[in-house]
Amino acid sequence: MPTPSSSPVYLVDDDEAIIDAISFLMVGYGYEITSFNAGDDFLSSVDLTQPGCVILDAKMPSMSGPQVQRLLHQVRSPLAVIFLTGHGDVPMAVDAFKNGAFDFFQKPVQGAALSESIAKGLHYSERQHWKLRHQQLIDTLSERETQIFKLVIAGHTNKQMANQLCVALRTIEVHRAKMMSKLGANNVAELLKLAPLLNSPSNNG
Predict the structure, then answer these.
(1) Structure pTM?
(2) What angle do CA 115, 22, 38 make, to 5 degrees?
(3) What is the separation of C-alpha 191 from the centre of its chain, rounded to a whole number of angstroms?
(4) Which Gene3D superfamilies match (predicted)?
(5) Which residue in 60, 72, 102, 107 has the fewest CB atoms around it within 10 Å?
(6) Please, what are the averages of pLDDT over each run of 10 residues along the chain (205 residues)?
């Protein structure tokens, strides 16, 4: 079981009875729920760039759960999305699940199952937040700095890089220092943790 997370948990549902029931239920599992009656209120009130978990009602009058999810996707929010559905909402929820929802449940939901899903969703969200934050740092690298990043994690020394790129050793040292500083990395081991992010579309070609 994942270790407890301090990231927030949100609930968006237009039914006050559902909000009260789930909020009360989740307190027993150690979760303090922040609730909203409408999707637009949630979107305008929450920092969507931070990790967390949002439990979305599938059908709401003004903005449906899938519509909220699409907006979260558009802004590249790391929030994990868990859907709550009525019986007639299942096809909608299945489509949302295919579009990246973390989990979905039919009402009424079992507390233990929802609690476990929240815990896993929060840790998933925190990993996504880490990836997005470091991807943004990688995107600030110049073409030369990216080239040096790749050579460093491939095991090349500064001298080998200077020879391969036909530049002065001092030039390599300067670019390498700038690259490390931009990424907030202190050593090669920390660079290796970031290496998978080089394969993202924004760093290809």
Answers:
(1) 0.78
(2) 115
(3) 20
(4) 3.40.50.2300, Winged helix-like DNA-binding domain superfamily/Winged helix DNA-binding domain
(5) 107
(6) 71 93 93 94 95 93 89 94 82 77 89 95 94 92 94 94 94 95 93 84 45
